[in-house]
Prior knowledge:
Blueprint: H1 2-18, H2 21-33, H3 40-53, H4 57-70, H5 80-100, H6 104-118, H7 148-168, H8 177-221, H9 223-241, H10 261-292, H11 296-324
Helix pairs in contact: 3-4, 3-7, 5-7, 8-9
Amino acid sequence: MAQVAFLDNLLREYLVFRGFSGTLKALDLEQRTEKDQHFRAERILDQFNNAVQNSDLLALRSLWFHLDNNIFSKLEHTYAVAVKKLENSLLKYYLVTAYSSNRSEKVSEFFNKMAGELQQQSEWKDWFYFPFCKNAEESPTFALFFTKQWQDTLLLSLRNFLTTVYQCLPQPTFVRAEQEAVHMQRLSEDNAGLRTRLLNLQQELHQLTQQQPGTSASGTSGGSLSGGDGGARRRSVYRQQQSLSDILPFDISPPGHIVDDFCIIASEANSVSQASDAQARGLKLLIRNIGSGSSPVMGRKDQAASSLSDKSTKRRSGSVGRSWI
């Protein structure tokens, strides 16, 4: 509450600076009459009830549009059905009250202004007969809305809905101004601490790089032992500073051909083994032919002898014939 009072004073100073005297008077009046912020739903319900009893359609619609644009539109989509049902019930309550007060002109004015919006809703299809219905409180279609139980239930549901909505509303940005300022200050402090830490790390790295030339010079002047110690220290320093991301792969070109010497040796061995196998098979076939008496050389000699004997036989037979003749 202390924060809200502080912001009220800031708002009052702003209104004085801009010269909004009427708004300032209305703000002062509402602040004097406001006892507790939890009675906001009661005051809004009283405004709705006064608009209905006075048959002030403009005030009723203006108040509902204000709540719908600034409060109901920020709710989840699951509440859209409940909001629409409450709006239609409130309009029906307005019609029933105007009809009960014998204000038929207000009923006709309602349908003249709202017909274009309501004719697209199936819920209002039977209500267009309402201005022409005689004894509407006895009609089965409209009798329920004239009962006190339905009207009290509507006002109670509207009051509970408004109370729940006001309790669940997030604080406006204007009220969270101080909290946002504290949050920004904490972020600035965290940012300054990180900058200091980064600067210290950069200084340590700079000192480490300056110590490396000194260690190499002391290693060369102190002999081989000291040089070995200095080299070990340098390697340890480089090993600490080097990371995996700093290591670059070697650029090794691929070989010009895929076939190697072992493949060539294997192919030569295969060719030699195939030649020796073929020679061995030829010798085996020659020995087999000689042992079986069917040598190719002997076969050719037998064929030549048989051909010579046939020729001599033919000559003898020819000479005999010629001498006989």
